[in-house]
């Protein structure tokens, strides 16, 4: 049973037994992994604050034969987002990105882009306080990395260039259409909203934040609809995001 | 042919509903109960029935009690100017064990947890605000867990309560008694430094 060491982000924890925690974490080297941290809920736990949700950590774990869950032996904090989570809005935003990551990323499939996206989003929420841009960026890139993002540049039916034009997207997420080809019941996007989405695909979160980029709600809602369609269930935290003051 | 007699299967199924109990443990417990004295097994059944039928939430503080209001809310020696807010009724006992606190309690019924769909509406916050309307309460001690959820709940409550003119305090967090600084992580150490006091 060799001990593995990896950089990771804690996605979610559940109480287990008397004082243990079941931990879902995104390992940079191993992908999404679930494991048990013995005694993690006790006051003198060696894990301290390292297993709080979205903590960026270095984690040591080993696998046991015939067991699905790994055993977490040690965890050291690299970067904590606990202080930022004291704000209710930020707490909801952190909850949403954790829920999406857990739902979308398959177990044991490493994805460095997904890891970097999650970490960059956590840092942006912490440093900016505002959650609209980080959430919009995270959902857009989750859809992109999942391979479900339709082309935003050309009409999915006739191929017409959509630069400077409004677009219409159908609920199946199969594409963005021009005015002439829009399917019945499709939702409209303004030319500005599509331009913002294209900009978000080219720039880093830091640059977008520095440029004061504003993400229209229509875009974020569309990306979240696509995610819900893919995972075949509603996101629990989404309703709380809509109610957040 | 079924694995077990129907009443045994039913007992195993019921035991499996308990937290942390899987199929094997449920079987072991079921066969232990079947081997035990009749009185012992029935005493357990009676205790469960009695607890379920008589224990309910206190109408004032939401603590679990068999009398309403609970003994903390009606106790003559309790300080009515202070309310300690906790997540669950089980959090009251460790505070009572200190024998240093003799104020009242308020059980929220959890903490803000977006991942579990628990928002402010799902917690007993309105009833806490109702209790403050008398004006008799001077201090609210927020004793939610020092986790991300507990901290978010504490911050949310402080924003609600401070404008009402009541003193809002938070229990200290940091190094546990009996542990060594060498093993403390930076967040725990930071909390300990922030919460330092003059000797």
Summarize the structure.
With 245 residues, chain A is an alpha+beta fold.
Characteristic terms for this protein:
heterodimer, A: 245 residues, alpha+beta, OB fold (Dihydrolipoamide Acetyltransferase, E2P), de novo design (two linked rop proteins), five-stranded mixed barrel, three-stranded antiparallel sheet, 7 helices, elongated, B: 199 residues, alpha/beta, Helicase, Ruva Protein, domain 3, Dna Topoisomerase Vi A Subunit, Chain: A, domain 2, 2 domains, four-stranded parallel sheet, two-stranded antiparallel sheet, 6 strands
Question: Can you describe this structure?
Answer:
The complex is a heterodimer of chains A (245) and B (199). Chain A has 245 residues and is α+β, with helices and mostly antiparallel strands. Chain A folds into two domains: 4-79, OB fold (Dihydrolipoamide Acetyltransferase, E2P), CATH 2.40.50; 87-240, de novo design (two linked rop proteins) (Up-down Bundle), CATH 1.20.1440. Chain A is 37% helix and 22% strand. Chain A is built from seven helices and eight strands. Chain A has helices at 88-104, 112-128, 132-146, 191-202, 205-210, 217-231, 236-243; strands at residues 4-16, 20-27, 31-37, 56-62, 70-79, 167-169, 176-177, 187-189. In chain A, the strands form two sheets. A five-stranded mixed barrel of chain A has the order 1-2-3-5-4. In chain A, strands 7-6-8 form a three-stranded antiparallel β-sheet. In chain A, a hairpin with a 6-residue loop joins β6 (167-169) and β7 (176-177). In chain A, α1 runs antiparallel to α2 (112-128), α1 packs parallel to α3 and α3 crosses α6. Chain A is elongated and about 65 Å long. The mean pLDDT of chain A is 91. By secondary structure, chain B is of the alpha/beta class. Chain B folds into two domains: 6-54, Helicase, Ruva Protein, domain 3 (Orthogonal Bundle); 64-198, Dna Topoisomerase Vi A Subunit, Chain: A, domain 2. Chain B has eight helices and six strands. Chain B has helices at 6-16, 23-35, 38-54, 71-74, 92-97, 126-132, 148-161, 186-194, and strands at 56-57, 64-65, 79-86, 103-107, 139-142, 167-170. Chain B has a four-stranded parallel β-sheet, with helices on one face. The mean pLDDT of chain B is 93. The A-B interface holds A 12, 16-17, 43-44, 46, 48-50, 52-54, 76-77, 80, 82, 85-88, 91-92, 94-96, 98-99, 236-237, 239-241, 243 and B 20, 112-117, 119, 147-149, 151-152, 154-156, 176, 178-179, 183-188.
């Amino acid at each position: 049973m060799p001990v593995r060491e990896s950089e990771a982000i804690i996605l979610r924890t559940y109480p287990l037994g008397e004082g243990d925690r079941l931990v879902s974490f995104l390992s940079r080297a191993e992908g999404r992994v679930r494991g048990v941290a013995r005694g993690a809920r006790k006051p003198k736990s060696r894990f301290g604050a390292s297993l709080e949700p979205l903590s960026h950590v270095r984690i040591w774990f080993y696998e046991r034969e015939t067991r699905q869950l790994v055993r977490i032996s040690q965890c050291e904090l690299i970067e904590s987002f606990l202080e930022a989570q004291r704000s209710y809005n930020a707490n909801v935003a952190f909850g949403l990105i954790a829920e999406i990551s857990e739902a979308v990323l398959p177990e044991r499939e490493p994805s460095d882009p997904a890891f970097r996206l999650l970490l960059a989003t956590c840092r942006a929420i912490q440093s900016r306080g505002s959650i609209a841009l980080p959430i919009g960026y995270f959902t857009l890139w989750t859809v992109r990395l999942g391979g479900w993002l339709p082309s935003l540049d050309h009409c999915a039916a006739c191929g017409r260039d959509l630069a400077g034009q409004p677009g219409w997207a159908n609920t199946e997420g199969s594409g963005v259409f021009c005015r002439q080809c829009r399917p019945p019941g499709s939702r409209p996007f303004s030319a500005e909203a599509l331009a913002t989405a294209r900009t978000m695909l080219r720039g880093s979160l830091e640059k977008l934040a520095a440029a004061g980029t504003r993400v229209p709600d229509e875009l974020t809602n569309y990306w979240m609809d696509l995610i819900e369609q893919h995972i075949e269930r509603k996101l629990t935290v989404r309703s709380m995001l809509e109610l957040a003051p | 042919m079924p694995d077990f007699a129907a009443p045994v299967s039913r007992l195993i199924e019921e035991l499996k509903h308990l937290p942390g109990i899987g199929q094997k443990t449920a079987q072991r417990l079921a066969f232990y109960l079947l081997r035990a004295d009749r009185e012992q097994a029935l005493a357990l059944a009676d205790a469960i029935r009695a607890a379920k039928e008589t224990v309910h939430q206190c109408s004032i503080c939401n603590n679990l009690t068999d009398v309403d209001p609970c003994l903390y809310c009606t106790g003559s020696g309790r300080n009515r100017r202070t309310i300690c807010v906790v997540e669950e009724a089980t959090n009251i006992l460790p505070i009572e064990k200190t024998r240093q606190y003799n104020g009242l309690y308020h059980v929220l019924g959890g903490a803000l947890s977006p991942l579990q769909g628990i928002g402010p509406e799902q917690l007993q916050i309105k009833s806490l605000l109702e209790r403050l309307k008398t004006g008799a309460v001077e201090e609210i001690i927020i004793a939610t867990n020092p986790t991300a959820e507990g901290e978010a709940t504490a911050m949310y409550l402080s924003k609600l309560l401070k404008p009402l003119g009541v003193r809002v305090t938070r229990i200290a967090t940091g190094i546990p008694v009996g542990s060594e600084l060498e093993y403390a992580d930076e967040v725990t150490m930071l909390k300990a430094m922030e919460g330092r006091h003059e000797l």
